[in-house]
Write a structure and sequence with these properties.
Length: 845
RNA sequence: GCCCUCGUGGUGAAAUUGGUAGACACAAAGGACUUAAAAUCCUUGCCCUUUUGGGAGUGCCAGUUCGAGUCUGGCCGAGGGCACCA
């Protein structure tokens, strides 16, 4: 018996697939299409286990669908713009382009070694001008449609490095590199008008039946639709301000109004710019950074103005106007009406500044003299102290009635508000797609004409400068448009833009005129199954959905408005973490154990503290290098293991033992295969005692069922079961119809272990045009069935009996059963429940 | 605080959707083969009983049902998301 040489076999088949262009895809309208896509990787250096899991899951599905005779599109590309390249380049004095290209080449080789069924002819890379020139054109297209605009916005500013920081570069309010206190600074930036599509993006979720509910809920919350009303408060005071607009979801509580709070960025703040106290207050607010979380952690503080706001419900009620740090200019109108009795945040603020607290809602089980004391009452109730609203249930009736009143008296109107903000796309970075916009001498916006695209990034430039690198490229910035000297925008696009349409580019990667060819997009789109990490549940997926809306908007012909028909979010790959007593991390390679409990450093045998299993990350050093594992055990074994232990949507725990078990499976299957081929060749077989057909038909049925449900861990269990069954029977008995059934089994194995399966199939037949086995009803059920016998619903016995026996015969047989008959002595059966061919439940008294 | 998801052996987990709980795998213990080891194979797994067998059992407490891991309500616990959102 030969040992299975995974190395030469895997190499052989990978070459075979490449040479025969097995995975090349093209439009074929006679076939049903299946677009299988996994989130494309960022080329950070080497592939990690997360990639292995993601792409294995996708590959099993793509190969399965191909066997089911779908016309499968399964492409791969590189999300190759982004900060890591720029940082790496800066640290090692390299060119980001060279660094990226080197990584792509390494990772491509690694991915190929996994034996993925990818159409590499469609490979794309977002940092290539061939890709981003189309993106620049899209930018201009969206600009013409009015979906791109420029406005001032706050950024995290590092005053030492003179640069803008991403949120993750701000650590405890300080710049990650310089350590300087980060400031909020206003910059002119480009925005996509994603909020224009709030309603469509929200409604669209209802039709995405193949998306996880979790993701849909997250997007729903992110879009944040709320119903309420817009109120125009009249203002009294010594400023030329007569009104302040405000959005509220609780107009019913207006009689409990005790202050009006404004964002420090509210337009009204301009009247206080020279007020020293206000300046101090504002800078206090600005220290909290731009993330919503950091604002949240700050203490509630306010700055009192001399203005008074008049209650629209009762003009005699006048309340003070504050600036407050908890009010965001981005939401509503940057103004909040404060009702301390029925909002905890307002309550805290009112207590701090000793403001009036008037109770206007009482719990249903309390009387009208109910008063809010130590905390706000925020639950449903009945209106009190509220004039014409008194006695109404709230929120329901009271909100309706108060909006009616405000509308009739022209003090406000019904309004739907969305939390979703427009998407800021300007980044003050080098390694990204240049924005195809220039400015003339007067600073007016000038579009770069289509024929001048792409605006290419300058190569090999100095990156160790302060501020935005492209700003220093004097020659590059200068551009002549229609004979006029202009200056290019020196910002680049957020890399989320790159990934918002790459799935369209895969449909027609060669198309030179436009980002995609409409006919091809109409054939392939939408993506039938998209697979990736749940960390992209909101931004990437929402932006991609927006992009389809934006491209469809005002378009002559129709393209799909939803990019991803099916979505699957896989879990992460985890490993224990190791630390020594100095809190230094150690990788699994650096430690050893003898009993599986106590771990020691290999180097000096010192004790290691074992931490919880966490998602593999470089910083915690709990990674396992896929390349090393592939070298050691082969691609098939890795694919087998990564699917085996947990359902794909859950986190999986890396286990060396599990990996070895997977390797052993491949090896012992090969031995079994040789026994089986020997058996097939041996024509003298006489006693064909075992009919494999029923087993195989059942297997095909449950295998297909589980595969379609993405229960890949269960597939692995079935393979173990099948191996155990075949191995046991082949040693004892001759098997009928062995060849036909074994071939079917090999095809089931093929999507998971494509190299091994190909090698085995080749021994049985020359033809490698395979198709997924179908089942025949008559073979799905055996002549005999197991009947569970219960007494009062508890299992007491089990009998094997002829199928479809009539009720009388069945009961007779049940009564004959020894266990049952002894049990029933001196007792009478009161009634029985029969589940056909499955179960008999005897009810006794 | 609100929303979502999930609680099954020592571990990862199955359970075809209300009908044999723990498939399959890992780990452990015992055994077989072997001079020995590795590899391989077999057995065991909670409680009572020598065995035959019996009982309990899917986080906890109720309920619906002939029958509940699965459905309903309440509680406890874990994980994730959102949030001074007006």
């Amino acid at each position: 018996m030969d040992r299975y040489n995974f190395k030469s076999t895997e190499e052989k088949w990978q070459k075979f697939w490449e040479k025969n262009k097995t995975f090349k895809s093209s439009i074929n309208k006679d076939k049903k299409k299946f677009y299988c896509l996994e989130m494309f990787p960022y080329p950070s250096g080497k592939i990690h286990m997360g990639h292995v899991r993601n792409y294995t899951i996708g590959d099993v599905l793509a190969r399965f669908k191909k066997l089911q005779n779908f016309n499968v599109l399964h492409p791969m590309g590189w999300d190759s713009f982004g900060m890591p390249a720029e940082n790496a380049a800066r640290e090692n004095n390299l060119d980001p382009k060279e660094w990226t290209e080197k990584n792509i080449s390494t990772m491509k080789t690694q991915l190929k070694r996994l034996g993925l069924s990818i159409d590499w002819d469609r490979e794309i890379s977002t940092c290539s001008p061939d890709y981003y020139k189309h993106q620049q054109l899209f930018f201009l297209e969206l600009y013409d449609k009015g979906l791109v605009y420029r406005k001032e916005n706050y950024v995290n500013w590092d005053p030492v490095d003179q640069t803008v920081l991403a949120n993750e570069q701000v650590i405890d309010g300080k710049g990650w590199r310089s350590g300087a206190q980060v400031e909020r600074k206003k910059l002119n930036q480009w925005f996509f008008n994603i909020s224009k599509f709030s309603e469509q993006l929200l409604d669209g979720l209802d039709n995405l039946s193949e998306w996880p509910n979790k993701v849909k809920t997250m997007q729903k919350n992110w879009i944040g639709k709320s119903f309420g009303c817009e109120i125009d408060f009249k203002i009294e005071g010594d400023l030329p301000v007569k009104n302040i607009k405000c959005f509220t979801t609780r107009p019913d509580t207006l009689f409990g109004f005790s202050f009006l709070a404004l964002s420090v960025d509210h337009p009204l703040s301009k009247y206080f710019e020279n007020d020293l106290e206000f300046k101090k207050f504002k800078s206090e607010c600005s220290k909290t950074g731009t993330t919503e979380e950091s604002i949240a952690q700050a203490e509630k503080i306010g700055f009192k103005t001399n203005l008074l706001a008049i209650n629209p419900m009762d003009s005699k009620m006048k309340v003070p106007v504050y600036f407050a740090n908890f009010v965001l200019m981005d939401y509503g109108f940057g103004a909040v009406f404060g009702c301390p009795a029925h909002d905890q945040r307002d309550f805290d603020f009112a207590k701090k500044y000793q403001l009036n607290i008037r109770t206007v809602v009482r719990p249903k089980d309390k009387t009208d003299d109910f008063q809010v004391k130590n905390q706000a009452f925020v639950e449903d109730g009945l209106m009190i102290n509220s004039s014409f609203l008194d006695g109404l249930t709230t929120p329901g009736e009271a909100i309706e009635k108060s909006i009616d009143y405000l509308t009739k008296n022209k003090l406000g109107k019904k309004k739907i508000n969305f939390r979703l903000k427009d998407w800021g796309i300007s980044r003050q970075r080098y390694w990204g797609c240049p924005i195809p916009i220039a400015y003339d001498k007067n600073g007016n916006i000038v579009k770069v004409p289509k024929k001048m695209l792409p605006i290419k990034l300058p190569e090999k430039i100095e990156l160790n400068t302060k501020g935005n690198p492209l700003d220093h490229q004097k020659k590059w910035k200068e551009i002549q448009i229609n004979g006029e000297n202009c200056t290019l925008d020196t910002d680049t696009l957020d890399t989320f833009v790159d990934s918002s349409w790459y799935f369209l580019r895969f449909c027609s990667p060669e198309n030179n005129q436009y980002g995609f060819n409409e006919d091809e997009v109409k054939y392939w789109m939408p993506v039938d199954q998209y697979i990736g990490g749940v960390e992209h549940a909101i931004l990437h997926l929402l932006y991609s959905r927006f992009f389809m809306q934006a491209l469809s908007f005002d378009r002559q012909s129709s393209i799909p408005t939803e990019p991803f028909k099916g979505l699957f979010t896989q879990g992460m790959v985890c490993h224990e973490t190791y630390k020594d007593e100095n809190n230094r991390w150690f990788s699994p390679d650096e430690v050893y154990t003898e009993n599986g409990k106590d771990f020691f450093k290999i180097k000096d045998k010192k004790k290691i503290l074992v931490g919880p299993s966490e998602s593999m990350s470089k910083s915690k050093k709990n990674t396992i290098d896929p390349e090393k594992i592939i070298n050691q055990y082969g691609a098939d074994a890795v694919r087998f293991f990564i699917l085996s232990d947990s359902p794909p949507e859950k986190d999986v725990q890396w286990s060396d033992q599990g990996m070895i078990a997977a390797y052993k499976f491949v090896q012992k299957f090969w031995i079994l295969h040789q026994k089986i081929t020997e058996e097939i060749k041996n024509k003298k077989r006489k006693n064909e005692n075992i009919d494999l057909t029923i087993y195989t038909n059942k297997l095909v049925e449950k295998f297909t069922f589980s595969l379609e449900k993405f229960n890949m861990n269960v597939l692995i269990a079935y393979l173990h079961e099948t191996y155990n069954f075949l191995n046991k029977e082949i040693e004892k008995l001759d098997i009928k119809d062995l060849k036909e059934n074994y071939l079917k089994i090999l095809i089931l194995i093929f999507p998971i272990l494509p190299h091994l399966a190909s090698e085995c199939i080749k021994d049985i037949q020359k033809n490698l045009n395979l198709s997924w086995p179908t089942t025949q009803k008559e073979y799905l059920e055996e002549k005999f069935v197991n009947i569970v016998i219960q007494i009062n619903g508890k299992k007491k016995s089990l009998i094997k009996i002829e199928k479809n026996l009539d009720e009388k015969m069945l009961i007779e047989n049940v009564m004959k059963d020894k266990k049952i008959s002894t049990f029933l002595e001196k007792k009478s059966v009161f009634k029985h429940i029969i589940v056909k061919n499955k179960l008999v439940n005897l009810i006794i008294k």
